[in-house]
Specification:
13 strands, globular, disordered N terminus
């Protein structure tokens, strides 16, 4: 049995050549420095992976416009319509940068989303190009759930535009987006893991707006002195995402050990996994 696939409608596959990488400086790119060794044969069980979005995005130069009704988890269409409409309005305000908690360098992106519904879209796994996504190397056959301030949660294959709207933003009408989406996702049945497999949470704190009810792993990355690794933690979460998708196994700790030393603390259904990357 493979990775859980959540229902989403077809979206055109935009060639990589049709994407602009200007929103992410080349100096910030971090390429995977290692390839996880293959695991011995393991039982085939479902793993549901939760990811945050990335600040670094690749803006599609062409593609379909945003169709909220085609996104996975269609029960969220109404709140998505509310947030996207308000974001477009806020992006036209003189104080838009302050409201969206972003800097002057992002002004062209913020101004572009005044017409958010007219921007070209591409699959989310191609639009998000931050450190985690560079390492995860997601493709059309990979199924993960991506939490975001704009859409709440989508599938990695959903077509979306590049945008600026983090979960830490508070919009004038919707209010704090963390609170808004937590309320929308409370007791959301579609997000429950459909099998006895595990949920692996790669999200940063701001995006932990919904918690699984079954077996749930969260991931911490530390160096050999015990110090929490911040920026590079995204890189290793991306590597672990790729390894789990390739392994098609819910033996999360065993898969993580292909990347370094692992310790696990269990509290009920929640498993706190600490990864110390191999040097």
């Amino acid at each position: 049995m493979g990775v859980t696939h959540h229902r989403s409608l077809w979206s055109p596959d935009v060639p990589r050549g049709a994407l602009s990488r200007t929103t992410r400086p080349p100096s910030q790119l971090i390429r995977p420095a290692m390839v996880a060794p293959s695991l011995p044969a393991a039982r085939m069980r479902t793993v549901h992976i939760l990811l945050p979005p990335s600040e670094g995005k690749t803006a599609p130069l062409s593609g379909p416009t945003l169709d909220l009704e085609s996104l996975a988890y269609p029960e969220l269409t109404a709140p998505r319509q509310s947030v996207t409409k308000e974001l477009a309005a806020v992006s036209a305000r003189p104080d838009s940068l302050a409201l969206l908690k972003t800097g002057e360098r992002t002004r062209p992106e913020v101004e572009a989303q005044r017409n958010l519904g007219e921007l070209p879209c591409a699959p989310a796994y191609r639009v998000y190009t931050g450190v985690l996504y560079e390492a995860a190397r997601l493709g059309p056959d990979d199924s993960v759930s991506i939490f975001s301030g704009l859409f709440g949660v989508t599938a990695s294959t959903d077509s979306i535009p590049a945008y600026r709207c983090s979960m830490n933003v508070s919009l004038p009408q919707a209010g704090p987006l963390k609170t808004f989406w937590r309320r929308q996702l409370k007791d959301h049945p579609v997000l429950e893991t459909a099998s006895s497999g595990a949920t692996v949470d790669m999200r940063s704190g701001a995006y932990q707006i919904w918690n699984p009810r079954g077996v749930w792993w969260d991931i911490r990355v530390r160096d050999r002195t015990g110090k929490v690794i911040t920026h590079m933690a995204k890189h290793y979460r991306g590597l672990l995402t790729r390894a789990l998708l390739d392994a098609k196994s819910d033996e999360v700790a065993d898969v993580a050990r292909t990347l370094g030393d692992v310790s696990v603390e269990v509290k009920g259904n929640r498993h706190h996994l600490t990864l110390v990357p191999a040097v």
